[in-house]
């Protein structure tokens, strides 16, 4: 799959094993070490290497994916994507995403997405992709990797209509989470899902592998949401 976020990767939606072998991690770390020594700016943490091992089937595939990831970060200038970047400021001003300082009950940094503030007909996919990367990077940076190294994304579909449905955005998000940020998604909560979204979901779910689908939870009500977030952190505007 060719993506505007960079690279041409096949088997984008391959299944993800739940664990990794310690000997595979040692081998992968040994193979990555010359790259890190040659250019310390390319260094990736042990937690990152383990995530790639969990997401890809072999050491060879994990190594190849990591090399592509490092190259992509450099070519895409990921480090320059901050809140002062013009494209990031534009999307932040819409109110479509909130990056709160609190975490869910499992310790995952939270991302709140308000679909009603997204206009699919007027968005620029390249600009939106930069914004997605910024959001993932910002949330992931809040992870305490000694406890948990994935994030929780909540999609609020209150006021959602088909004008907000953006399949290009969804495909790009899936691509990024599977190829550039594997195992970073811990839970995806979908709240206030209207009937009109049921048809959209029938399309989207076939783009997801079984592992990813198992992380998606349709929230029934406030009590259900409180299983994931402390009551004090749940905005009253959600209900």
UniProtKB/TrEMBL annotation:
Alphabetical list of Pfam families matching this protein: CRAL_TRIO
Top-level lineage group: Eukaryota
Protein name as it appears in the record: Uncharacterized protein
Source organism: Paramuricea clavata
């Amino acid at each position: 799959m060719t993506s505007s976020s960079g690279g041409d990767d096949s088997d984008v939606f391959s299944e993800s094993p739940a664990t990794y072998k310690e000997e595979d991690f040692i081998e992968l770390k040994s193979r990555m070490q010359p790259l890190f020594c040659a250019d310390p700016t390319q260094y990736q943490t042990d937690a990152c290497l383990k995530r790639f091992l969990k997401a890809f089937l072999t050491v060879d595939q994990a190594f190849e994916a990591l090399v592509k990831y490092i190259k992509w970060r450099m070519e895409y200038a990921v480090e320059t994507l901050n809140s002062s970047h013009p494209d990031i400021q534009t999307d932040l001003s819409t109110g479509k995403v909130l990056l709160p300082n609190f975490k869910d009950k499992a310790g995952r940094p939270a991302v709140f997405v308000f679909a009603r503030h997204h206009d699919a007909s007027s968005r620029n996919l390249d600009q939106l992709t930069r914004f997605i990367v910024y959001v993932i990077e910002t949330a992931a940076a809040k992870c305490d990797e000694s406890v948990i190294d994935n994030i929780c994304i909540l999609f609020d579909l209150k006021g959602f209509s088909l004008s907000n449905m953006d399949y290009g955005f969804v495909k790009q998000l899936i691509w990024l989470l599977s190829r550039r940020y594997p195992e970073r998604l811990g839970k995806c909560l979908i709240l206030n899902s209207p009937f009109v979204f049921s048809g959209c979901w029938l399309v989207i779910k076939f783009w997801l592998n079984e592992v990813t689908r198992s992380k998606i939870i349709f929230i029934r009500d406030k009590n259900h949401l409180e299983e994931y977030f402390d009551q004090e952190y749940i905005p009253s505007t959600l209900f």
